[in-house]
Amino acid sequence: MEMMNTYDLFINRSSRIQGEWLKFIERLDENLEKSLKQSVKNTLLDLGKHIIGDKARGELVPIFKIYTILDPNNSQWKIIHDPAHEDLKGSIQVFNKKIIDVTRVIPRIEKIFRERRTAKIAELKKELDESEKNGGNTA
Question: Is 14 found in the same domain as 42?
Answer without folding.
Answer: yes
